[in-house]
Amino acid sequence: SIKKYFPLENNSLFKKNSRFVKAVDGVSFVVKKGETLGIVGESGCGKSTMGRTILQLQTPTEGEVLFEGEDISKFNRKRLREIRKDIQIIFQDPFGSLNQRMTVGAMLSEIIHVHKIVPKNEVLKYVQKLLEDVGLNKEHYWRYPHEFSGGQRQRISIARALAVKPKLIICDEAVSALDVSVQAQVLNLLKKLKYKYNLTYIFISHDLSVVKHISDRVGVMYLGKVVELANKKAMYQDPKHPYTQALFSSIPDVTSVNKKERIILKGDVPSPLNIPKGCRFHTRCPAAENICREKEPDFRKIANEHYVSCHLV
Ligand code: SF4
Ligand code: MG
Predict the structure, then answer these.
(1) What interface predicted TM-score (ipTM) does this complex get?
(2) Phi, then psi, of 297 in degrees rounded to 5
(3) Does any ligand 1 atom lie closer than 6 A to the CB of residue 281?
(4) DSSP string, 165-231
(5) What is the DSSP annotation of 121-167?
(6) Could you tell me if 224 and 27 are in contact, meaning their C-beta atoms sit under 8 angstroms apart?
(7) I want to staple 1 with a disulfide (CB 3.0 to 4.6 A). Which of 28, 34, 180, 288 is the partner?
(8) Residue range 79-136, pLDDT digits in tens
(9) 206 near 43, Cβ under 8 Å?
């Protein structure tokens, strides 16, 4: 559960205006062990901030992040370091986060050594197994990051995340920089690894097809809030929130029997510095009524595992 008020990531803007921006605001949800929770939304909706907050890479000003029952936002540095073994994150651009001067084997060995994952004499074997598990081979141990393709580098960052035996992996646009065919390979790898390693994923992406491919449940974010949360099937076949309906109407779906009309939203997403009163979607919502401009809708349960934040649903 997160309920946070954030200074904007861009500190200069934050200082200039000397006020807080709610990049993520009143977001509350549960991730179940073993599931993949997809989080979708347009860029700037707060998805990444939310992911970073779960990891405590960004400090929330309010609320809590419970991991296995403990509020990790209250952890001191030492305990945070320990918990970061349990919660790993994979970013869009592995190149930026891989040490260019180290071979892949040396990099992975160092992590395993520092975190004392296996005894010293077993590190080499463990790294080789990791490389094989992510679809690389033993020879790749001696190579440098620049010698790999984009897809292979993402496999390396998956291996790096797996190396410390995490329980939860947050994937933030993890396949967004890859070609479509490579995307599918990496997504299938992530699926396979989830079962093999007993993982739970939070899969953040702006790409609705990618999220559909991998998720069990899906949350839709708009301007710092989750506006709808449901099982994948309900979300993709019968979305209830007007924003979700518009967003999902853009997916080309050749198999759909009742082909839905594409809904084009008017206007742009408002600035997080100037969040509309009432329902924050009302400036663009095709269904908005008077109450929407006055009162913020609650995030209500409307069916089993289906939550929506809209007055008219
Ligand atoms: Fe649209 Fe009103 Fe529902 Fe907001 S509460 S999504 S403005 S109908
Ligand atoms: Mg992002």
Answers:
(1) 0.97
(2) -70, 145
(3) yes
(4) --SEEEEESTTTTS-HHHHHHHHHHHHHHHHHHT-EEEEEES-HHHHHHH-SEEEEEETTEEEEEEE
(5) GGHHHHHHHHHHHTT--GGGGG--GGGS-HHHHHHHHHHHHHHT--S
(6) yes
(7) 28
(8) 988 888 999 999 987 667 788 899 999 999 999 999 999 999 999 999 999 999 999 9
(9) yes
State how far the Cα of 232 lies from the Cα of 37, in Å rounded to an integer: 9
**Measuring from atom 8 of ligand 1, which residue has the nearest CA?**
288
Contact 22, 224 (CB under 8 A): yes
Ligand 1 binding pocket includes 285 (Cβ within 6 Å): yes
Model confidence, pTM: 0.90
User: From ligand 2's centre to the CA of 90, what distance in Å?
Assistant: 12
Is 279 close to ligand 1, i.e. is its CB under 6 Å away?
A: yes
Q: Residue 282: CB within 6 Å of ligand 1?
A: yes
Q: How many angstroms separate the alpha carbon of residue 183 from the centre of ligand 2?
A: 17
Confidence class for position 13, pLDDT limits 50, 70, 90 = very low
Among 226, 279, 302, the mutation site with the greatest number of ligand 1 atoms within 8 A of its Cβ is 279
CA of residue 142 to ligand 2 center, whole Å: 32
Q: Tell me how far apart the alpha carbons of residues 214 and 180 are, in angstroms, rounded to a whole number.
A: 14
